[in-house]
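Why does residue order matter? Because the sequence determines the fold. Keep that principle in mind as you read this record.
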Amino acid sequence: MKKIEKIFTGLGTINTITLYLNDIDTIKANDTLNTIEQYINDLDNKLSIFKSSSEISLINNTNKYIKVSSDTFNIIKLAKEYSKINNTFDITIKPLKDIWLNKTIPTNKEIKKILKLVNYKDILLNNKDMSIKLRNNKQAIDLGGIAKGYIIDKIKDILKDNNFNNALINLGGTVSSIREYRSIGIRNPFNKNNYFATINSIDEDIVTSGLYEQYYKINNKVYHHIIDPKTGYPADTDLISVTLIGNNGAKLDALATSCIILGFNKSIKLIKKYNINAIFILNNGKIYITDNIKDRVNIIKE
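Structure:
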């Protein structure tokens, strides 16, 4: 079997798309990989909060309806739906994240003021012309908690449309193995340069959210990038890493963020409700694996 692989940057990470072929139609395979790279770069230009010309930046910086592409409209619409599941996922979290990015501890007064801007219900959607606006000035959207999951679902559609049914997609750790079992590494939250486990995966998406990804210390206390939209403070629960396994990348991405904020006990109830498998790592080092995948998970002993 022939393997064709493309590695490129986009979405602020390194992406790897691998196609496995029984024939030698390498031209079509390379064309499809180029299409995927272009699609990711196009979405990066539309969804990035770091690019002033992106559709998200236009929405954030303009207090009027902005016509957007179908992808931008659909991902924001999905995000609103997932926010209704519980109040721990909210893409209007950006103003809160911004004040914590200064690497100083904001006052309670500052947080209470900014909290008033965080409310997914203030995202106004016009389905007729696919336009979006935020209800109030200074509100802002950040799609970092759902974008890669949404995009991995769309890549699977591109592969299917081009008749490629054997592939491995890896968007900076958001992974999908198609058709064949493959061993997927799960990052060690206590040593992010290594894996603590692998899972044999086939035809499912794997999304990991962890407190080890972005953080800093002030007075020997660690502050990380996942903010609880109810309190305005970085999530402070017993979970340090959440890996969700299922068949909808966008939903898994959103729920992984929710689980970090909810903590272990409430997360167990959440994943059972939506029939999702999980690997949880608690901050005391304990590991919890849902029963349905225990026989496919291999813990790496150091």
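The two ends are 33 Å apart (CA to CA).
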